[in-house]
# Entry
Amino acid sequence: MHVCGLLVLDPSTMEGDPYDCIRSMLLEALPEVSLMRKRLATAPLGIGRPFWVDDVDFDVERHLHRVHLSPPGASRSLAHVVGEVASRPLRRDRPLWEVWFIEGLAEGRTALLAKMHHATIDGFEGVSIMGKLFDFGVPARAGSGQGDDWEPHRLPHQLELLRRSVLGRVTDSLEVTRLLPATVARLGATLWHLWTRRGSGQGTVKPFTAPRTSFSATLTPRRSIAFTDVSLADVKVVKEAFGVKFNDVATAVVGGGLRRYLVDRGELPNRPLVAAEPVSVHGQVGNMKGVTKLSVIFSTLATDVEDPVERLRAVASANLRAKEISAAMGSDTFTRWAGQAWPNALSLAARLYSGLRVAEHHPVIYNVLFSNVAGPPFDLYLAGARVAGTYAFGPITDGAGLNVTAISTGDRIGFGIVACPDLMPEVWDLAKAIPDALDELTVAVKRLPSDTSRRQRRPRTA
# Structure
């Protein structure tokens, strides 16, 4: 359940050795991101959730790694290194992050790979961290690298952890008494919404209705990586021409890429692939503890639709319906119930689920996890180096061995793709198909009559 962020850097604007500049930047960033110096502590008998505690043995050198690509430093060589890093779990006896400095890329570039557990970061927190680490608009000098005079708090005694856990379980029980009636009411509102809207628009996309594909199976530990990028301006042109949302275009582009990938292999199912899309609920869950605060909606990728414009319209309609259902159900409901799970029971269930290959014996929940993260629309600099490419790679799960994450920075949108190579061996074919899917839509825009796009635009909402 770790996530990775890859930055391709142009070090020509740096002053000094790139590795030393990055190391100095990380040391000075430690006070800004508190979880970088905290690790997990578990109460006796595994009662309750783990706690964040200061790592009294923290040493930044244990989290920094340096590798060099073999010539010519091509994108696939870089992706291979990222895949190797993503294939290994993070150690739980230290803060849940690593940073890999990768040298030897083509054109004299370097790369920075950050790997963090999902318990420490989600899309909302990722953008927040970017705001603390990056320079905006102009390169700035790297810092002195002296860090701060941080002193860790002592590790709580086992009895103290046990007391906190018992108190936490009591608090959770009270939360359940509040959640249950609210959930029943929201479920009734959702069913009423579905009943009153049953004849309108595209059908509602439901979990457990996805078709089975070659990557809808049990995972192995291996991970394969690919990435590509497209023009942000092209996506905006399509968005405005057809009166849809930015996320609708991004989702339809992924659907078009997957359709081409599956057609080329003779694996295209008759039913459309289903995407699970995380939605941030920061600000909607009150004082709920934890960093990752996400809900999820289910949407179609319309892979059964050959025409790219009709595919985009089907995706837009399904996304709108999914958001209406999420609003009726309460976007924070999933997050609050997930917080009530007992970690030991959840961990045991996950191991049994994987070991018994249960995902291959029940209807497919969804096919791909797709995330769309909006970054700043201008150039970024890190420790004085211009960021030439930004890609994010999320987790995959049994039964859904594919994750696609889109993140926009500057004038580009980077698509990061994670798959299990034992289920999806040619992940670069999908990376090549995504820009082609966007090209199909931009060509369709050019064929529109000059006033058509204006008529198709929907009124803007606040």
Observations:
- The chain has a mean pLDDT of 83.
- The domain at 2-142 is CATH 3.30.559.10 (Chloramphenicol Acetyltransferase).
